[in-house]
Amino acid sequence: MSSKYLVYFIFGFLTLITLSNCTKNNDAQHYIHVAHTRIFDTINQVIDPRMEAINYDKFDMVLLGGDLCEESSKRYDILEYLDGVFDLDSPTTLWALGNHDNARLDFVEKATKRPYFYTTHHNGITFVVLYTQEKEDWICTITGDQLKLLEQVTDTISESSHLVVMTHKLIWLRHHPEMSKHIGTNPYNWSCNYLIARNNWYKDIVPMLQSVEERGIEVIALAGDIGNNVLEFEEHTSDGIDYLASGSNPEKKDVKFLLFKHNLITKNLSWEFIPLEEFLEDGQRIE
Question: pLDDT (tens digit, 9 = 90+) per residue, 134-184?
């Protein structure tokens, strides 16, 4: 083989390897879910510095479970700060508002350029982002336009591999027969901070989600109102629905976030709870 053709061969071989590696990297997408990032300070409206240290640009989607700051939308400059951290108006940043985020819903809609509940699609996954904060903290029913939105999605969904329903509160705990072990006797001794006295998840919403599961589409209910008592939550119920939640706490050292890995070829969506401090110390390396 002449030197000229040898150069062409080596160049072509290296190009093939490069393209193969690029394809391999593009096959895997990584989505981060963080919630309850607020510090317990009404003066300094910032998030836990450890959560702020995460380079969110490394992830293909940023899923926010709510309660970002102590009063996230009390002033627009707080939302501008959060936008600098999470890129709030990006189509791949989804935010399920919490009771510490909703002082000015008009500010939130301006900052995110979206309604405060909506549906969107990404990489073959349908996301429904719901608003669970009624005027009274312990009432978390999905009614009206939100219920109609969920009905429409669950009636028509067909091509997606997954349906992810994002909420702030763990509204699915109360009255669910397979969640009773998580419920305490008062609002402050269980997974979520609020003993939700009224909700319609099991009565109205679960049948819709079960119909989606029966069509071979995996359903995940994803919430974010934990962190004070527990830092991770995972239950797989007998109907095939996965219930997940993550949340942080500025006063705890063992904070975690939830990392999803999505294989675009196989359409497999897996997840694990990642210790935050180990992740930061390891140079924020994503497997």
Answer: 655 556 788 899 999 999 999 999 999 999 999 998 888 877 889 877 776
**From its phi and psi, is residue 267 left (phi > 0), alpha (psi between -120 and 50) or beta?**
left
SS3 146: helix
Backbone angles phi, psi at 137, to 5 degrees: -55, -35
Domain-by-domain residue ranges, the chain?
Answer: 30-281
**Continuous H helices in the chain:** 3-27, 49-52, 76-86, 105-112, 144-156, 206-214, 276-281
**CATH number for region 30-281:** 3.60.21.10
Which CA distances in Å does 34 have to 101, 209, 211? 14, 24, 29
Beta-strand (E) ranges in the chain?
A: 28-34, 61-64, 93-95, 118-122, 125-129, 162-166, 218-223, 232-236, 242-246, 256-263, 269-275
